[in-house]
Write a structure and sequence with these properties.
Helices cover 33% and strands 37% of the residues. The chain is α+β, with helices and mostly antiparallel strands. The strands form two sheets. It has a seven-stranded antiparallel beta sheet. It has a two-stranded antiparallel sheet with strand order 3-6.
């Protein structure tokens, strides 16, 4: 069993989308990017995944430049290739061609020595769905609070 250490999470994705399926993928990075990821200098907000020409690319993920990188530093917002099998890419292309589906990165984490990305096949939420989620979360919080108070007495 390998040790998993989460580096970055996309909490906004869970607020804006229904996550129907989750897939794990590797990511192709250069040396200074790996060092910045180890320092936790990553932002997944406003990033998405595009599948074209039989490859999947992570677009919009911000990895801050490494301070000791000198001339070998990377561009912070460059497109990064995801490492998936051909069958997985074809499956994702078929699913995203359906109306309203998109691919969003949910987490970036270390699995052993490798950096992995958890991809979500997502459907967009409407405003009333977001309000329902918030109300559901508040109701659960109130129930937990009431149970905790009851157990204290």
């Amino acid at each position: 069993m390998s040790d998993i250490k989460i580096v970055a999470q996309n909490k906004k994705a869970y607020h804006d989308y229904f996550v129907d399926e989750e897939i794990e993928a590797g990511i192709e990075l250069v040396g200074t990017e790996v060092k910045s990821v180890r320092q936790g200098r990553v932002n997944l907000k406003d990033s998405y995944i595009s599948c074209k020409t039989g490859e999947a690319f992570l677009i919009g993920m911000h990895i801050s430049p490494y301070e000791q990188g000198s001339i070998y530093n990377h561009e912070p917002l460059r497109s990064r290739r995801l490492l998936l099998h051909r069958k997985e890419i074809n499956k994702l292309i078929g699913q995203t061609s359906q109306e309203g589906y998109t691919l969003i990165p949910l987490k970036l984490y270390f699995k052993g020595q490798y950096i992995k990305v958890q991809i979500g096949l997502c459907r967009g939420k409407k405003n009333y769905d977001k309000r329902a989620s918030i109300a559901e979360r508040d109701a659960k919080r109130n129930m937990d609070r009431a149970m905790k108070e009851k157990n204290n007495f």
